[in-house]
Amino acid sequence: MIAPFNGPTFVSFLKLVPALAAGCTVVLKPSPYTPLEVLAIGDLVQEAGLPPGVVNIISGELDASVEVTTNPGVDIISFTGSTAVGRMVMAQAAPDLKRVVLELGGKNAVIVFADADPDRVALEVAANATFAGQGCMLMSRTLVEQSIRDEVVAKAIALLDQVTVGDPSDPTAVMGPLIRDSARTRIEGMISAAQDDGATLACGGGRPEHLPKGYFLNPTLLTGVDPSMGIAQQEVFGPVQSVLSFRDEDDAIRMANDSQYGLNGSVFTADVERGFRVAERVRTGRMSINSSFSANPDAPIGGYKHSGMGRENGSFGVTEFTNSKFVSYNAGGS
User: Fold this and answer.
1) Identified catalytic residue from 124, 136, 145, 312
2) Tens digit of pLDDT for each residue in 260-295?
3) How confident is the model at residue 334 (pLDDT cuts 50, 70, 90)?
4) H or E segment and range at residue 21
5) Pick the catalytic residue: 37, 47, 103, 151?
6) Quick one: CA dihedral 78, 84, 87, 89, positive or negative?
7) Is 103 a catalytic residue?
């Protein structure tokens, strides 16, 4: 089990609990950028009295992950992280035909129809940015029906302008830093490239002046984004929101599905039937109607296309750690 940097405790338990429920022993490997939270799980395992060898936690760089994924004693690999590394994991699993569960990247779209509440939508746009954008389930594309696009953008900017960026231990800070400097430099490059492609920087885009140290970046909103632009196709994994406009329902669904990813999505509308109709047609593992995310404890987590394979959470997650077997008995003779 390989956990990501952006949710080390939550994702570790998302993998660990179903595997133990299925009767498996596990090796848990945290990201090299956030090892301490996962190492602390080892203390909990000992306090719980689990026998030695049931839960094994290792830390280290890439070579430590490869050591585990290529070990013939491992039957299944559960990985959460980028699509690029997910491909590497699949390649490492291939020689022994290991099973893989991959929860990978996302370029999730929220579809906003003209009958939606613009204040609620603006709040969702701001909320998806203030996790520093470092979440594969977060919405990073806002597709708005043309007639209310300007209103939604104005309200979203007003909220983002109020976001306080700072040390997460500061109770007044709403948004913390990015994971490392290379991530911030990459995201700044994507913002610049989007502007070169014709997008408009409507909000943010720079580093907070009052924070000379740390990997901070202001929440950013880009308008005038075209579906063909890199910023609309590539996972940013940063506090960057792209606004696109659509004409009608079919146009919105086409734009939402115009992505190599298919992890999460949402639709905002006062028309319940349209909400379910759109949710069925968007090719993602999850869709929420009039919210950005469902916290149902038994709802499956996983994606289509380059967002991965397999499912986590609830009974779906337990099933991934089991194998089906058919046993027959001839009652008619020896």
Assistant:
1) 136
2) 999 999 999 999 999 999 999 999 999 999 998 777
3) low
4) helix 8-21
5) 103
6) negative
7) yes
